[in-house]
Write a structure and sequence with these properties.
422 residues, alpha/beta, D-Maltodextrin-Binding Protein, domain 2, five-stranded mixed β-sheet, 17 strands, 20% strand, globular
Amino acid sequence: MIKHIKALSFILSVILTVTAFSACFGSGDVSEVSQSGKRTEIRVWAPDEVVSLTQKAVNDWLKQDGKEYAGKYYVTVSAMSEDNAATQMLTDVDAGADIFGFAQDQLARLVAAGALSPLGGNFLEKVKTENVEGSVNAATLDNKTYAYPETADNGYFMYYDKSVVTDPSSLEKILDDCQAANKKFYMNMQSGWYNVTFFFGAGAFIGYDVDKSGNITGCNSTLATEKGVIGLKGMISLTSHPAFVQSENAASKFNPQGGDAVVLISGVWDSATVMGYLGENYAAAKLPTFMVEDKEYQMGSFGGYKLIGVKPQKDSDRLVFCHALASFLTGETMQATRFKEKGWGPSNIKVQNTQSVKNDLALSALGEQLEYSIPQGQYPNEFWNITEAFGTDLNSGKFKNYSDDQLLEALKSFESDLKGAK
Protein backbone atom coordinates (compact mmCIF):
# COMPACT_ATOMS: atom_id res chain seq x y z
CA MET A 1 0.00 0.00 0.00
CA ILE A 2 1.24 3.48 -0.82
CA LYS A 3 2.82 5.25 2.14
CA HIS A 4 1.65 8.69 3.22
CA ILE A 5 3.21 11.19 5.66
CA LYS A 6 5.14 9.19 8.20
CA ALA A 7 6.94 11.91 10.15
CA LEU A 8 5.95 15.20 11.76
CA SER A 9 8.60 17.15 9.84
CA PHE A 10 7.20 15.89 6.56
CA ILE A 11 3.67 16.83 7.63
CA LEU A 12 4.80 20.34 8.47
CA SER A 13 6.58 20.79 5.15
CA VAL A 14 3.53 19.64 3.23
CA ILE A 15 1.27 21.87 5.30
CA LEU A 16 3.37 24.88 4.31
CA THR A 17 3.33 23.92 0.65
CA VAL A 18 -0.37 23.08 0.40
CA THR A 19 -1.42 26.07 2.47
CA ALA A 20 0.61 28.41 0.29
CA PHE A 21 -1.04 27.06 -2.83
CA SER A 22 -4.50 27.14 -1.26
CA ALA A 23 -4.61 30.49 0.51
CA CYS A 24 -6.55 32.28 -2.18
CA PHE A 25 -9.38 29.78 -2.56
CA GLY A 26 -11.94 30.50 0.14
CA SER A 27 -12.75 28.18 3.02
CA GLY A 28 -14.30 24.90 3.93
CA ASP A 29 -15.21 23.46 7.33
CA VAL A 30 -12.96 24.24 10.25
CA SER A 31 -11.65 21.29 12.24
CA GLU A 32 -13.01 21.10 15.79
CA VAL A 33 -10.26 18.83 17.05
CA SER A 34 -8.32 21.49 18.90
CA GLN A 35 -11.41 22.72 20.74
CA SER A 36 -13.22 19.52 21.58
CA GLY A 37 -10.72 16.67 21.23
CA LYS A 38 -13.40 14.81 19.28
CA ARG A 39 -13.04 13.27 15.84
CA THR A 40 -14.52 15.33 13.04
CA GLU A 41 -16.05 14.13 9.83
CA ILE A 42 -14.39 14.21 6.40
CA ARG A 43 -16.99 13.84 3.66
CA VAL A 44 -16.18 12.04 0.41
CA TRP A 45 -18.42 11.85 -2.64
CA ALA A 46 -18.03 8.89 -4.98
CA PRO A 47 -20.19 7.31 -7.72
CA ASP A 48 -22.72 4.87 -6.32
CA GLU A 49 -21.02 1.82 -7.83
CA VAL A 50 -17.84 2.37 -5.82
CA VAL A 51 -19.18 3.73 -2.52
CA SER A 52 -18.81 0.48 -0.57
CA LEU A 53 -15.44 -0.28 -2.11
CA THR A 54 -14.19 3.22 -1.28
CA GLN A 55 -15.50 3.22 2.29
CA LYS A 56 -13.84 -0.11 3.07
CA ALA A 57 -10.54 0.98 1.54
CA VAL A 58 -10.57 4.25 3.49
CA ASN A 59 -11.30 2.45 6.76
CA ASP A 60 -8.42 0.06 6.13
CA TRP A 61 -6.10 2.94 5.22
CA LEU A 62 -6.95 4.74 8.48
CA LYS A 63 -5.89 1.63 10.39
CA GLN A 64 -2.56 1.45 8.55
CA ASP A 65 -0.88 4.26 6.62
CA GLY A 66 -3.26 6.95 7.85
CA LYS A 67 -3.44 5.77 11.43
CA GLU A 68 -1.88 8.96 12.85
CA TYR A 69 -5.08 10.70 11.75
CA ALA A 70 -7.54 8.06 12.98
CA GLY A 71 -7.95 9.77 16.35
CA LYS A 72 -8.78 13.10 14.74
CA TYR A 73 -10.97 12.30 11.75
CA TYR A 74 -13.48 9.79 10.49
CA VAL A 75 -14.46 9.50 6.85
CA THR A 76 -17.95 9.15 5.43
CA VAL A 77 -18.32 8.11 1.79
CA SER A 78 -21.67 8.83 0.12
CA ALA A 79 -23.02 8.42 -3.39
CA MET A 80 -22.71 11.31 -5.83
CA SER A 81 -22.02 11.04 -9.56
CA GLU A 82 -19.21 13.09 -11.07
CA ASP A 83 -21.68 15.31 -12.96
CA ASN A 84 -23.83 15.98 -9.92
CA ALA A 85 -20.80 16.51 -7.69
CA ALA A 86 -19.52 19.29 -9.91
CA THR A 87 -22.97 20.88 -10.06
CA GLN A 88 -23.37 20.77 -6.28
CA MET A 89 -19.91 22.22 -5.67
CA LEU A 90 -20.52 25.03 -8.14
CA THR A 91 -23.82 25.80 -6.38
CA ASP A 92 -22.48 25.83 -2.81
CA VAL A 93 -18.83 25.09 -2.10
CA ASP A 94 -19.17 25.24 1.68
CA ALA A 95 -21.99 22.67 1.66
CA GLY A 96 -20.08 20.32 -0.61
CA ALA A 97 -17.95 17.32 0.26
CA ASP A 98 -14.32 17.70 1.30
CA ILE A 99 -13.20 15.29 -1.43
CA PHE A 100 -15.13 14.65 -4.65
CA GLY A 101 -14.81 13.24 -8.15
CA PHE A 102 -15.54 15.12 -11.36
CA ALA A 103 -14.90 15.03 -15.11
CA GLN A 104 -12.05 17.09 -16.52
CA ASP A 105 -14.29 19.48 -18.46
CA GLN A 106 -15.48 20.97 -15.15
CA LEU A 107 -11.99 21.93 -13.93
CA ALA A 108 -12.03 25.61 -14.93
CA ARG A 109 -15.45 26.21 -13.42
CA LEU A 110 -14.51 24.53 -10.16
CA VAL A 111 -11.28 26.52 -9.91
CA ALA A 112 -13.18 29.75 -10.55
CA ALA A 113 -15.69 28.82 -7.84
CA GLY A 114 -12.91 28.30 -5.29
CA ALA A 115 -13.84 24.64 -4.96
CA LEU A 116 -10.37 23.14 -5.45
CA SER A 117 -7.24 23.27 -3.32
CA PRO A 118 -4.17 23.05 -5.61
CA LEU A 119 -1.58 20.35 -5.06
CA GLY A 120 1.90 21.05 -3.74
CA GLY A 121 5.00 19.30 -2.44
CA ASN A 122 5.17 15.54 -2.55
CA PHE A 123 1.49 15.26 -3.48
CA LEU A 124 2.14 17.12 -6.71
CA GLU A 125 5.34 15.25 -7.46
CA LYS A 126 3.61 11.92 -6.96
CA VAL A 127 0.82 12.85 -9.38
CA LYS A 128 3.29 13.97 -12.04
CA THR A 129 5.54 10.92 -11.83
CA GLU A 130 2.93 8.19 -11.44
CA ASN A 131 0.24 9.15 -13.98
CA VAL A 132 0.11 9.44 -17.75
CA GLU A 133 0.84 12.92 -19.06
CA GLY A 134 -2.62 13.48 -20.51
CA SER A 135 -4.28 12.95 -17.15
CA VAL A 136 -1.92 15.39 -15.42
CA ASN A 137 -2.59 17.97 -18.12
CA ALA A 138 -6.33 17.43 -17.61
CA ALA A 139 -5.90 18.35 -13.93
CA THR A 140 -3.82 21.44 -14.65
CA LEU A 141 -4.90 25.01 -15.37
CA ASP A 142 -2.58 28.01 -15.77
CA ASN A 143 0.39 25.87 -14.71
CA LYS A 144 -1.22 24.80 -11.43
CA THR A 145 -2.42 21.26 -10.78
CA TYR A 146 -5.77 21.32 -9.00
CA ALA A 147 -6.82 17.67 -8.85
CA TYR A 148 -5.68 14.04 -8.69
CA PRO A 149 -6.08 11.88 -11.83
CA GLU A 150 -8.43 8.98 -11.14
CA THR A 151 -9.09 7.34 -14.52
CA ALA A 152 -8.05 7.45 -18.17
CA ASP A 153 -11.15 5.83 -19.60
CA ASN A 154 -13.57 8.60 -20.53
CA GLY A 155 -13.84 8.06 -24.27
CA TYR A 156 -15.28 5.68 -26.84
CA PHE A 157 -14.24 3.04 -29.34
CA MET A 158 -15.82 0.13 -31.22
CA TYR A 159 -17.26 -3.13 -29.87
CA TYR A 160 -17.90 -5.78 -32.50
CA ASP A 161 -18.81 -9.41 -33.12
CA LYS A 162 -15.69 -10.93 -34.65
CA SER A 163 -17.67 -13.83 -36.12
CA VAL A 164 -19.28 -11.30 -38.49
CA VAL A 165 -16.83 -8.40 -38.89
CA THR A 166 -13.87 -9.49 -40.98
CA ASP A 167 -11.94 -6.20 -41.04
CA PRO A 168 -12.52 -3.83 -38.08
CA SER A 169 -10.21 -1.16 -39.53
CA SER A 170 -12.55 0.00 -42.34
CA LEU A 171 -16.01 1.50 -41.82
CA GLU A 172 -17.08 0.59 -45.32
CA LYS A 173 -16.07 -3.05 -44.94
CA ILE A 174 -17.73 -3.24 -41.54
CA LEU A 175 -21.01 -1.94 -42.95
CA ASP A 176 -20.79 -4.43 -45.83
CA ASP A 177 -20.34 -7.28 -43.31
CA CYS A 178 -23.31 -6.03 -41.27
CA GLN A 179 -25.55 -5.85 -44.31
CA ALA A 180 -24.48 -9.28 -45.59
CA ALA A 181 -25.38 -10.81 -42.21
CA ASN A 182 -28.60 -8.76 -41.92
CA LYS A 183 -27.22 -7.21 -38.72
CA LYS A 184 -26.81 -3.66 -37.47
CA PHE A 185 -24.24 -0.97 -36.69
CA TYR A 186 -25.27 1.08 -33.62
CA MET A 187 -24.00 4.58 -32.88
CA ASN A 188 -25.48 7.72 -31.33
CA MET A 189 -24.99 10.13 -34.23
CA GLN A 190 -27.49 12.53 -32.67
CA SER A 191 -25.05 13.47 -29.92
CA GLY A 192 -22.25 16.01 -30.25
CA TRP A 193 -20.15 13.70 -28.09
CA TYR A 194 -20.13 11.12 -30.88
CA ASN A 195 -20.81 12.82 -34.20
CA VAL A 196 -17.69 15.00 -33.91
CA THR A 197 -15.72 11.85 -34.69
CA PHE A 198 -16.12 12.54 -38.43
CA PHE A 199 -15.29 16.23 -38.15
CA PHE A 200 -12.18 15.54 -36.09
CA GLY A 201 -11.19 12.73 -38.43
CA ALA A 202 -11.34 15.08 -41.42
CA GLY A 203 -9.27 17.69 -39.59
CA ALA A 204 -12.07 20.09 -38.62
CA PHE A 205 -12.35 21.31 -35.03
CA ILE A 206 -14.78 22.86 -32.58
CA GLY A 207 -13.71 24.12 -29.16
CA TYR A 208 -14.14 27.03 -26.73
CA ASP A 209 -11.81 29.45 -24.94
CA VAL A 210 -12.21 29.81 -21.18
CA ASP A 211 -10.87 32.64 -18.99
CA LYS A 212 -9.44 32.31 -15.49
CA SER A 213 -12.90 32.79 -14.01
CA GLY A 214 -14.24 29.79 -15.87
CA ASN A 215 -16.25 31.87 -18.34
CA ILE A 216 -16.37 30.91 -22.01
CA THR A 217 -14.91 33.81 -23.97
CA GLY A 218 -14.96 32.55 -27.54
CA CYS A 219 -15.41 29.69 -29.96
CA ASN A 220 -12.75 28.16 -32.18
CA SER A 221 -14.27 26.33 -35.12
CA THR A 222 -13.22 25.15 -38.55
CA LEU A 223 -16.44 23.25 -39.25
CA ALA A 224 -17.57 25.62 -42.00
CA THR A 225 -14.65 24.64 -44.24
CA GLU A 226 -13.78 22.04 -46.83
CA LYS A 227 -12.63 19.78 -44.00
CA GLY A 228 -16.00 20.15 -42.34
CA VAL A 229 -17.74 19.22 -45.57
CA ILE A 230 -15.63 16.06 -45.78
CA GLY A 231 -16.60 15.16 -42.23
CA LEU A 232 -20.27 15.78 -42.93
CA LYS A 233 -20.11 13.61 -46.04
CA GLY A 234 -18.73 10.78 -43.91
CA MET A 235 -21.59 11.24 -41.46
CA ILE A 236 -24.16 11.21 -44.26
CA SER A 237 -22.66 8.04 -45.70
CA LEU A 238 -22.97 6.23 -42.37
CA THR A 239 -26.44 7.43 -41.36
CA SER A 240 -27.91 6.67 -44.79
CA HIS A 241 -26.57 3.09 -44.83
CA PRO A 242 -29.26 0.40 -44.29
CA ALA A 243 -27.16 -1.27 -41.58
CA PHE A 244 -26.92 1.89 -39.44
CA VAL A 245 -29.17 2.33 -36.40
CA GLN A 246 -29.34 5.51 -34.32
CA SER A 247 -29.22 4.57 -30.65
CA GLU A 248 -28.18 6.12 -27.35
CA ASN A 249 -27.75 2.85 -25.47
CA ALA A 250 -27.63 -0.39 -27.42
CA ALA A 251 -25.39 -2.81 -25.49
CA SER A 252 -28.41 -5.07 -24.94
CA LYS A 253 -28.82 -5.39 -28.71
CA PHE A 254 -25.95 -7.90 -28.70
CA ASN A 255 -28.27 -10.29 -26.90
CA PRO A 256 -28.62 -13.33 -29.21
CA GLN A 257 -32.24 -13.58 -28.08
CA GLY A 258 -33.75 -10.99 -30.37
CA GLY A 259 -30.77 -8.66 -30.69
CA ASP A 260 -29.30 -7.65 -34.03
CA ALA A 261 -26.14 -5.71 -33.12
CA VAL A 262 -22.79 -6.53 -34.69
CA VAL A 263 -21.13 -3.19 -33.91
CA LEU A 264 -21.57 -0.61 -31.13
CA ILE A 265 -19.66 2.64 -30.69
CA SER A 266 -19.49 3.15 -26.93
CA GLY A 267 -17.18 3.20 -23.92
CA VAL A 268 -15.82 0.94 -21.19
CA TRP A 269 -19.07 1.20 -19.23
CA ASP A 270 -20.63 -1.29 -21.68
CA SER A 271 -17.79 -3.81 -21.70
CA ALA A 272 -19.26 -6.30 -19.22
CA THR A 273 -22.65 -6.33 -20.96
CA VAL A 274 -21.26 -6.76 -24.47
CA MET A 275 -18.75 -9.38 -23.36
CA GLY A 276 -21.48 -11.30 -21.59
CA TYR A 277 -23.57 -11.53 -24.74
CA LEU A 278 -20.81 -12.18 -27.29
CA GLY A 279 -18.64 -14.58 -25.32
CA GLU A 280 -15.82 -15.93 -27.48
CA ASN A 281 -16.90 -13.63 -30.34
CA TYR A 282 -16.35 -10.52 -28.20
CA ALA A 283 -13.90 -8.01 -29.67
CA ALA A 284 -13.03 -4.32 -29.41
CA ALA A 285 -10.92 -1.96 -31.48
CA LYS A 286 -10.22 1.69 -32.10
CA LEU A 287 -12.67 3.48 -34.36
CA PRO A 288 -12.26 2.59 -38.04
CA THR A 289 -11.27 4.74 -40.99
CA PHE A 290 -13.87 6.16 -43.37
CA MET A 291 -13.69 7.02 -47.04
CA VAL A 292 -14.76 10.23 -48.78
CA GLU A 293 -14.08 10.57 -52.50
CA ASP A 294 -11.47 7.82 -52.52
CA LYS A 295 -9.49 9.30 -49.63
CA GLU A 296 -9.22 7.60 -46.24
CA TYR A 297 -9.64 9.38 -42.89
CA GLN A 298 -9.17 8.03 -39.39
CA MET A 299 -12.21 8.65 -37.20
CA GLY A 300 -11.35 10.89 -34.26
CA SER A 301 -13.14 11.27 -30.93
CA PHE A 302 -13.42 13.12 -27.68
CA GLY A 303 -11.26 11.75 -24.91
CA GLY A 304 -11.14 12.58 -21.27
CA TYR A 305 -10.20 11.77 -17.71
CA LYS A 306 -11.91 11.66 -14.35
CA LEU A 307 -10.33 13.51 -11.45
CA ILE A 308 -10.64 13.80 -7.68
CA GLY A 309 -10.50 17.21 -6.03
CA VAL A 310 -9.97 18.50 -2.49
CA LYS A 311 -12.05 21.39 -1.21
CA PRO A 312 -10.06 24.21 0.46
CA GLN A 313 -9.99 24.08 4.26
CA LYS A 314 -9.24 26.70 6.93
CA ASP A 315 -7.51 24.21 9.21
CA SER A 316 -4.08 23.27 7.80
CA ASP A 317 -3.95 19.84 9.46
CA ARG A 318 -7.35 18.97 8.05
CA LEU A 319 -6.22 20.21 4.62
CA VAL A 320 -3.17 17.95 4.63
CA PHE A 321 -5.26 15.00 5.72
CA CYS A 322 -7.70 15.59 2.85
CA HIS A 323 -4.83 15.72 0.36
CA ALA A 324 -3.28 12.59 1.84
CA LEU A 325 -6.62 10.80 1.54
CA ALA A 326 -7.18 12.02 -2.03
CA SER A 327 -3.66 10.88 -2.92
CA PHE A 328 -4.42 7.43 -1.54
CA LEU A 329 -7.78 7.23 -3.34
CA THR A 330 -6.08 7.92 -6.66
CA GLY A 331 -2.86 6.00 -6.04
CA GLU A 332 -1.62 2.76 -7.53
CA THR A 333 -3.38 0.46 -5.08
CA MET A 334 -6.82 2.02 -5.45
CA GLN A 335 -6.59 2.34 -9.23
CA ALA A 336 -5.65 -1.34 -9.46
CA THR A 337 -8.54 -2.26 -7.16
CA ARG A 338 -11.10 -0.25 -9.13
CA PHE A 339 -9.88 -1.81 -12.36
CA LYS A 340 -10.12 -5.32 -10.93
CA GLU A 341 -13.51 -4.92 -9.29
CA LYS A 342 -15.26 -2.35 -11.51
CA GLY A 343 -13.30 -2.25 -14.77
CA TRP A 344 -12.29 1.41 -14.41
CA GLY A 345 -9.42 2.37 -16.71
CA PRO A 346 -6.34 3.52 -14.78
CA SER A 347 -4.31 6.68 -15.34
CA ASN A 348 -1.53 5.27 -13.14
CA ILE A 349 1.37 4.21 -15.36
CA LYS A 350 2.28 1.08 -13.38
CA VAL A 351 -1.31 -0.15 -13.34
CA GLN A 352 -1.67 0.54 -17.06
CA ASN A 353 1.36 -1.65 -17.69
CA THR A 354 0.09 -4.64 -15.74
CA GLN A 355 -0.74 -7.68 -17.82
CA SER A 356 -4.36 -7.73 -16.68
CA VAL A 357 -4.95 -4.20 -17.99
CA LYS A 358 -3.09 -4.94 -21.23
CA ASN A 359 -5.29 -8.02 -21.70
CA ASP A 360 -8.47 -5.97 -21.32
CA LEU A 361 -9.75 -5.58 -24.88
CA ALA A 362 -11.95 -2.57 -24.15
CA LEU A 363 -9.21 -0.58 -22.39
CA SER A 364 -6.68 -1.54 -25.05
CA ALA A 365 -9.06 -0.31 -27.77
CA LEU A 366 -9.68 2.91 -25.86
CA GLY A 367 -5.96 3.43 -25.34
CA GLU A 368 -5.38 3.11 -29.07
CA GLN A 369 -8.25 5.45 -29.89
CA LEU A 370 -6.99 8.09 -27.44
CA GLU A 371 -4.08 8.62 -29.84
CA TYR A 372 -6.66 10.08 -32.25
CA SER A 373 -8.71 11.88 -29.62
CA ILE A 374 -9.08 15.52 -28.68
CA PRO A 375 -9.29 16.19 -24.93
CA GLN A 376 -12.75 17.40 -24.04
CA GLY A 377 -12.47 20.88 -22.65
CA GLN A 378 -15.28 23.05 -21.37
CA TYR A 379 -18.28 23.31 -23.69
CA PRO A 380 -21.37 25.45 -23.02
CA ASN A 381 -24.60 23.68 -22.17
CA GLU A 382 -26.22 24.87 -25.39
CA PHE A 383 -23.50 23.12 -27.40
CA TRP A 384 -25.14 19.79 -26.63
CA ASN A 385 -28.62 21.02 -27.57
CA ILE A 386 -27.39 22.52 -30.83
CA THR A 387 -25.43 19.41 -31.83
CA GLU A 388 -28.42 17.23 -30.96
CA ALA A 389 -30.64 19.28 -33.27
CA PHE A 390 -28.01 18.97 -35.99
CA GLY A 391 -27.88 15.21 -35.40
CA THR A 392 -31.66 15.02 -35.72
CA ASP A 393 -31.46 16.67 -39.14
CA LEU A 394 -28.63 14.32 -40.09
CA ASN A 395 -30.54 11.19 -39.10
CA SER A 396 -33.65 12.39 -40.92
CA GLY A 397 -31.72 12.41 -44.20
CA LYS A 398 -31.99 16.17 -44.61
CA PHE A 399 -28.50 16.56 -46.04
CA LYS A 400 -28.43 13.40 -48.14
CA ASN A 401 -28.89 15.06 -51.55
CA TYR A 402 -27.14 18.35 -50.79
CA SER A 403 -24.40 19.63 -53.08
CA ASP A 404 -21.02 20.60 -51.62
CA ASP A 405 -22.07 24.26 -51.63
CA GLN A 406 -25.28 23.44 -49.79
CA LEU A 407 -23.39 21.35 -47.23
CA LEU A 408 -21.04 24.27 -46.66
CA GLU A 409 -23.97 26.62 -46.14
CA ALA A 410 -25.53 24.18 -43.66
CA LEU A 411 -22.22 24.06 -41.77
CA LYS A 412 -22.00 27.86 -41.74
CA SER A 413 -25.40 28.02 -40.07
CA PHE A 414 -24.43 25.24 -37.67
CA GLU A 415 -21.18 26.98 -36.80
CA SER A 416 -22.93 30.29 -36.26
CA ASP A 417 -25.26 28.65 -33.76
CA LEU A 418 -22.33 27.03 -31.96
CA LYS A 419 -20.46 30.32 -31.72
CA GLY A 420 -23.49 31.84 -30.04
CA ALA A 421 -23.91 28.98 -27.58
CA LYS A 422 -24.01 29.82 -23.88
